Amino acid sequence: MPARILMFAKLSNNANPMVNAMLVAVVHPWAGASLSHDDMLFFAHGGKLDDDFLVVEATMIEGTAFVLPSIEKAGDRIPASWEEAEYFLSFPPRHTWKDIGW
Amino acid sequence: MCARRQSDRQMPRMPFKNGVTDLTRLNGQEYPGLVFLTLVTVKPLLHESTMHPEWHSSIIRVLWMMLSLNEMMSLEAVTTSDLQLLDRRVEIFLQKFKGLFEIFALANSKVGLKKVKFHAPKHATRYIKRYGSSTNYFGGTLESCLKPTVKWPSELTSRRQDFLLKELAQRQQGRFSVAESKKNNAPIWQEFRSCNEKELPKKRVRSDLDDSASLLTDKPDEWKMELPKFSLSFHDNEWSTHHRKYTHRNQIVYPDYNSTSSDSVYSHGQQGDWVSCLADYAKDQNFRLIECSLSCKIPLAQDGASADILHCRPSYRSYPYLRRSWHDWAMVHWTMAY
């Protein structure tokens, strides 16, 4: 699932000296439990961001994602920036493009 | 801006400062990016009042086929079955394109689509068979070599056409002379340094790795975190934020790291909430020190050799009030429902 990275942090100095320091990220996750394809752009996944932020361990981050702001349905206001956007499109990795849409 | 401030290096470049309708000075490599952005921007433009909904999906499918075929044609290694598939797909694409845009082409000129540019993809497989992968005759690499040898040195010339070659040669000679003298003087310089080593002030060695790279940190392999910009420490059941030499005692804030003043903080956005969320998590896990960084270098999933940098900066190369942030997107593998 795509998520917007807000911060990276290293947590250390645990009360239990046996616990290692860990790398985490504060993310703004995609709302919902699964990805759904956009109605019009069949190759992309569309969705909204969740209301809350989450802290995830860096080991859960698989790699980069390419996401752009968009509109959900015709007539919605076109966002001019990330902050204004409510609906986002997540695109598949480029190496998979050749197998999509035929 | 949204398309450019992302770290997925595999995506086509989209440097269209003048918008996607200005086609001046475009080169071939930029067309995939242009088609991609057109696909994204076309969604708000297509609605029922402009044309039949079936046309919408046809237009989007044809535009996507262009991108898909481009990927197939630029594969580094192509098998015979790939070529057969490519041949069939080119035919499908051309038929779809013709069905959709032929009337517009005929309205513009009598020739319509009976032109070389439309017919050319039919020969793609033949050319790949004859000359190999398209990377064999890709001129971009050579072109980029001209940057250090022609483009950058020419900035140090009088830029007069009749003197350009002479002045470029002079600049090149200058570079060679400097490189050669550095090489010749290296032993003398080393000797001088060793003699004066004790007298020279010791500089702090700056590295993009702090002790987060140590084996005692739980993190994915090869991840390199940037030096922390600010930190939080937990004392007497309260978190305090430290930025440079200033401490926001018993406060959880996101310091404005761009400001010359150490005590200024981000107060307009949600940055404070992010830090609070992090502090709550750390408290639950019994950690007492949080070091916050704004970027992290991660190995590229495809080859592992090169790396992507994941940015998370509230204002990147800009003033905070302009709010030109760069927060990358990442694929997160959830291990449980949230």
Could you describe the 3D structure shown?
Chain A has about 100 residues and is mainly beta. Chain A has one domain (about 5-100). In chain A, about 0% of the residues lie in helices and about 45% in strands. Chain A has no helices and seven strands. In chain A, strands 3-4-7-6 form a four-stranded antiparallel sheet, with no helix packed on it. A three-stranded antiparallel sheet of chain A has the order 1-2-5, with no helix packed on it. Chain A starts with a strand and ends in an 11-residue tail after the last strand. In chain B, a hairpin with a 2-residue loop joins strand 3 (about 230-235) and strand 4 (about 240-245). Chain B is an alpha+beta fold and about 350 residues long. Chains A and B meet through strand 1, strand 2, strand 5, strand 6 and strand 7 of A and helix 1, helix 2, strand 1, helix 8 and strand 6 of B. Strand 1 (about 1-15) of chain A pairs antiparallel with strand 10 (about 330) of chain B, so a sheet runs across the interface.
Label this structure with key terms:
heterodimer; A: 102 residues; mainly beta; three-stranded antiparallel beta sheet; elongated; B: 338 residues; alpha+beta; four-stranded antiparallel beta sheet; 10 strands; 42% helix
Produce a short descriptive summary:
The complex is a heterodimer of chains A (102) and B (338). Chain A is mostly beta strands and 102 residues long.
Residues in helices of chain B, as a percent range:
40-55%
Q: Structural class of the secondary structure composition of chain B?
A: alpha+beta
Outline the low-pLDDT stretches of chain B. Answer: 207-213
Radius of gyration of chain A: 17 Å
Distance between the termini of chain B: 31 Å
Number of strands of chain A: 7
Mean pLDDT of chain B: 83
Give the number of helices of chain B.
8
Shape of chain B: extended
Alpha-beta content class of chain A: mainly beta
Largest interface: A-B, 70 and 82 residues
Total strands of chain B: the figure is 10
Spatially, the strands of the biggest sheet of chain A line up as: 3-4-7-6
Strand residue percentage of chain A: over 45%
